[in-house]
Specification:
Number of strands: 16
Distance between the termini: 59 Å
Shape: elongated
Helix content: 25-40%
Largest sheet: 5 strands, antiparallel
Length: 507
Amino acid sequence: MRLVDPHEQEDQRSNGGALVSLDPGEQVLTTLNQDGSRKWMKPRPSRGRFWKHRRVVAYGLIGLFTVLPHLRMNGKPVLLFDIAHREFTVFGTTFLPTDTLLLAMLFVTIFASIFFITAVLGRAWCGWACPQTVYMEFLYRPIERLFEGEPGKRKPKNAVGLRKLGKYAAFLLCSMFLAHTFLAYFVGTDALREWVTRSPLEHPVPFLIMAFVTGAMMFDFGFFREQVCILMCPYGRLQSVMLDKNSLIVGYDTKRGEPRGKSGRGKSKRAEQATGDVGLPILAEDQRGDCIDCTLCVQTCPTGIDIRDGLQLECIHCAQCIDACDAVMEKIGKPAGLIRYSSRVGFDGGARRLLRPRLFLYPTIIFAAVTVFTLAVAGKTGGAEVLALRGPGLPYNTLDSGDISNQVRLRVTNREDTPQAYTFSVVGPEGVRLANDPGELVVEPYAQGAVVLSIVVDPSAFEGGKCRVSFVATPQDGEPATTDYKLLGPSRVSETPPAETDGGSDE
């Protein structure tokens, strides 16, 4: 909205007039009226070929979203993001927060894939697969039309009384189901089943979590709706850097459609509403474009945009405008495709280039990230991981016997499904030994534990001030885990240890 001029405000006050807002010079959001109030979207469904394909994809995805948390692989959930216990299970393999390389490669793969898909197919994710679109357009809006009537066929009924109660009762049931499905990805189906079957008094915190998520779903799909795509989601604002002139978009063929208008005398009512008092004159048949200004493309758009104004961030590429326009073209005997999937180059009359540099760059990045991720996963499945860290204090000590002592902190990660008790040993040059007995270290499943070891070795074993050894953590049941480590010592036997140190640095 355009801001009110302070001088105009002062003039109105001095004249005793009421302060009124000025009309905006242009539309700021499609979901706002000129007075700044919310414009509720009641899109008219266009059940064309793209809508039918989207419906199949949508219900398939709803089924997949629902079933996926219940599937098991290697005795574990296929997907589980257990934030409370800091465990992340993907395709039957559990990862820990310390797996920073895996996390980095995962994010690189996701972002590179988003850029690649967008460069090729535009915002296909938004219009065809995003859960916000899938549930909104193929679950909540059909329920709303069931109670209120369908726009375009009959005048929508005001949702009052029993109709309003029935609609929101259905919304609540769907939101509860969706909330429980969502939580299953974060707490697991076993814990969720326990939450559902037990009394809320026995577990008030989980009950409040379920109630909060259900309320969030109700707010999202019952009130906020398309505002999520327009105001919250950054995808539309990033499309300018992810799309190029050859990317697939939904667009209006201006050369073919303009000048638009209706046959007969007078002026187009839609044009008068859009341009004010001037209006667009009605042209003769041979002077008009194919667009008859029926505005069905606007009426069917779930975000309320006019696709004829060009590419806009609110457009989610759902192809509803294509289905609506193709139906009109068929009725008036014109070829389909006035609004269609194409590219900016295609709409300008050129040929779309499928082979371009970014379509080679993105797959290369994805392949490299997936390769690193796969190799890292292969080295982290099952067993234990051992990491040796330099202990605090001096880098090394010279004992009265002349031997060299190092303090090492050994951290063990148990990747088994059961608790493990580990014993420790050191392997290296002749005479290397543990000066202390750490005993057994019991580590819970997918948890970490640590012990401090004191390693003693003859000074003659050091070359250039370093001596390589291996630490072995042997579980009660399973294969031993080994890690290499370099002890610090004198570069010459006669060298004395340093008097001060900053604690040393890990290698």
